[in-house]
Amino acid sequence: MQISRPSIMKKLFFWLTSLLALSLLTGCEALKITNLTPTSYPENPSRIYTITLRVDLNDKDIVPGSVDPRLIIDGKNYEMAKSATGPGLYEYDYRLPNGQAALAYYFIVKYKIAFIQREEPREVYSELTRVNIASRYVLSLETNRGPVGARVSLLGRGFTPQDAIYFDSQPIRTQYDSSTSLSFFVPPLASGRNYAVTMGSTSGQTSVGTFRIDSSTLSVAPQSLILRTGESQSLTFTIANPAPAGGLLLDVTTDVPESVIMPEVVVPAGQTMVTVTVQGGHPASGNLYLQGFGTGEVTVPVSVSN
Fold first, then answer.
1. 170-191: pLDDT as tens digits
2. pLDDT value at residue 214
3. Would you tell me which of 100, 210, 237, 302 could form a disulfide with 194, CB atoms 3.0–4.6 Å apart?
4. What domains are there in the chain, each with its CATH number?
């Protein structure tokens, strides 16, 4: 069988045309869309969340005014408006129904391409995207450094009395203030270094940031206590710098807890000293200990007799 030369040329032309068209479709996008919406939003009282899209026009033959971005959520079609923040940006403020903690959506952008004697409609789809609404989150630490005993607040939302703060995975003294505020006292750990701070609860742990423990000095007067059972004596603690906001907790411990009766020691905010009354209990000899000051530990000998 003989194949004519014109027939071969027609087939070759058809193949070349098809390959050229395919390369144009895959190698150049007339219109490109980029989703600028975060994948997680902190919950807000109005339950309105902004979905943002950027549209880049890469073809001069796109008909002016034909670009029509649409937001699709739960099968409903919402027209997106031009954003005042910049060219090519479109937004839609979506009100999330009560009871929902997430939403799934995608974009459809319709436009037209101008040819010599006609205009051809086209459209571009985005992939399905999910946004989670966080009802529990941490905004910031009140400060990222301080001395041992300083009280530091943690601001956020969704806190519970079961929450605890950790320094390098070690639980520290935590105080629940409200659903939007949590406090902790800087633990008596080695000063001059940063610690990873996390918040933990039954639902897992959340990274908060880092905290640096600064060195500080403290003096105690008298330097030892000699008491009889039932007798009281004043003990004064003095720090080098005024206590920070919230006061400075001095975590005093003892190896003879039945022999030493004393209140919690807190230097008031802005003050440099505090005096407490120590009462003798059961006869014994031991020490009061205070970690995190000076060379690492302050010791006050205590003797209680009949």
1. 999 999 998 888 999 898 888 8
2. 87
3. 210
4. 28-134 (2.60.40.10), 137-214 (2.60.40.10), 218-305 (2.60.40.10)
Give the residue-averaged pLDDT of 214-238. Answer: 92
Task: Look at residue 203 and tell me whether its pLDDT is greater than 80.
Answer: no
Span 247-271, average pLDDT: 91
Q: Is 14 helix (H, G, I), strand (E, B) or coil?
A: helix
Direct distance between the N- and C-terminal alpha carbons of the chain, in angstroms, rounded to an integer:
128
Amino acid at 261: I
d(CA 175, CA 181) in angstroms, rounded, equals 9
pLDDT over threshold 70, residue 7: no
d(CA 271, CA 251): 17
CA dihedral over 94, 97, 103, 107, signed as positive or negative: negative
Looking at residue 248, what is its pLDDT?
A: 86
CA torsion sign, 176 to 150 to 197 to 38?
A: positive
Angle 230-232-238 (CA atoms, 0-180°, nearest 5)?
A: 150
Query: In whole angstroms, what is the distance from residue 48 CA to residue 68 CA?
Result: 23
Q: What are the backbone angles phi and psi of residue 15, rounded to the nearest 5°?
A: -65, -45
